[in-house]
Each structure stands twice: as C-alpha cells, then as structure tokens.
Amino acid sequence: MSRKFGLLAPLALVACAPVGSELASEPDASSVTGALFVAGKFGNTLSKVDLATGEEVLQVDSCANPHELATSPDDRHVALACYGGTSVDIFRTSDLGKVQSIDLGENARPHGIVWHANGDIYATAEGRQSVFWISDPLGQADTFEYATGKRGSHMLAVAPSGNYAWTTDLGDRTVTLVDLKTRRAPRSVEVGEEPEGIALTPDGETLWVSARGSDKAFALDPQTLEVRGQTETGDFPLRIVVRPQGDYAVTSDLADGGLTVIDLASGEAVRSIAVSSREEAEARTQVTILFSPDGERIYAAETRANTVAEVDFATGEVLRRLPGSGGGDGMAIIQ
C-alpha cells in the first residue's frame, strides 16, 4: 500500500502527558550508562555509541543492508541480520570485532532477530519464507529452518520458553505462529493492513502487532491468534515494543514522527509523544524503536537524518539526538 504521509490525520491524544505518578521524574541524560549499537543500512556499517558521552566510539564495516540487531544474554556480543545477504553475523560488543558469520542459505535475506535468554538465536529469512533457529551460535552454530509459507516474513517474536515463534508477514497481511519444538504446520491469520511490528508481553500472554497500513495496534492470543482487541495509533505504526516492566506498549509512527503509548491493562492509547514534527517526519524517517533495559528511555532511529532520538518515557521529552550514522535502523542496547 502506498501512503502519502503529508495527507494523514494526526492522532487526537494529549501529547506528552505523564502516564502516571510513578513515572514522574526529571529527565537527566547525564545519568545514562552503557552502549547503543546501530546498524547503518545505507552505509553498510555497525557502530557503537557511548551513552554516557553521547559519542560514537566505534564503527566497522558490516554486511550489505544490515537491519535488526540483538545482544547476547551476557551483553558480550551483538548479532546482526544481514538483510542484503544470507548471514547472521556476530560481533563483540567491546571492540566490534566479528567472531562469527552464520550462513542461512541462498536468498535468505534475514531481517527480524532475537537472541533468546536460552542462548540461542532466532531470525526470519524473508527471502526463504521461513524462520531459523540457530543453536549454540558462538560454537557449532547448528541451524534449523521452519517454513512460514508466507510472503515477507519480516519481524519476529519468540516465547519465553523458546517453544514458539511468531512472524509478521507483510506480503500476505498475516501473523504466523511457528511451533519450534513439534514442527506442527504453521498457523496464520490476517491482521489489518501491512502488519509489521510485533512484540510479546514479558509474561508471554499477549502478542501485540502494529499494522502500518491500518494505523492500529492489535492484541492477539498467542496460541489461538484470536484478535482480542485493537487500538488506534498515530500514522503508519512501523514498529511496536513493550516496556520491560510489561505495563505499556509503544508504537513508532513513521508518518507523523510520533510515538503512541498504549496502556496494556486497558488496551487504550493514553498519550502520544512528538519526537519530531509532522513536517519533519519524512525527512527524518523514524523507524526502529527500543526501550532501555530499565524502561526509562526510548531510543528512536531517525534513519534518513542519521540520528537516534533519546526520549524520556515519563515526560516525553527528547533529551538529545545521538549519532545514527550510515542510515541507522536496527538497534540494540546494553546498560
């Protein structure tokens, strides 16, 4: 579906209103520690940004058109999905030295990626209409492929148990459930127009999907794929993430440069955050969003501006803009 961003109506919510008294804290970028990793999909780079100083401290060549990133459970490595190629590449977080390249086969085009708490990596292979389970990725790196049978299996969520994975399938307008242990046939349901963003609540009880062509987020039962509810968002919600605390979900609304905050208890959109103006939205092209591990900040990749906006979740204030060189898109964080 083609969207003309300048003609879209804004979401009628109170911008930047605090979510609740428990979140009322003064933003202070100087207290941030850790590192942000950014995949530059236009420059074919991987970079590391020191969050204490806000400076890019390392940059290396990566693969063609790199997209999503995921960090290992011990924060010592970061995995990169090489969307323009066929591999998942792994780098040390300390110095961005590449330690592993795992080939997924002809025309794989890996995109969505999860480095699970069990130590294994899961990735979509859009070109093969499949999901890969990579066991022991830093060792033997055994790969197991599961067909979705759907066009554009793009983004990915994995159950806390590691038994199931879910994909959003842009080409077929579906969400697909893949059983990773029994290899039963995958099941798919249509969800809105152009479902792309996907996130599972920490308890594994609700699957959230953002459909960018519908300007909505959908709550699904993870096992039956029944749609439990839907929520109006801002324009073109490309991504959705759940706060680590499990209390809110946030969509990245590319066409208006905003974020929609959804209360997961009620399923209602409770506020919007203006990261950039509607006039700036197309030039900045806000894509991937990521919560800090403590849930206090949101990082929004502004791909065409080569920046990453750091947003205080409690107040909605943009604290600073960090380097996102090379057309930063996929991100990962350690704290």
From TrEMBL:
<feature type="signal peptide">
    <location>
        <begin position="1"/>
        <end position="24"/>
    </location>
</feature>
<dbReference type="InterPro" id="IPR015943">
    <property type="entry name" value="WD40/YVTN_repeat-like_dom_sf"/>
</dbReference>
<protein>
    <submittedName>
        <fullName>Uncharacterized protein</fullName>
    </submittedName>
</protein>
<dbReference type="InterPro" id="IPR051200">
    <property type="entry name" value="Host-pathogen_enzymatic-act"/>
</dbReference>
<dbReference type="InterPro" id="IPR011048">
    <property type="entry name" value="Haem_d1_sf"/>
</dbReference>
<keyword id="KW-0732">Signal</keyword>
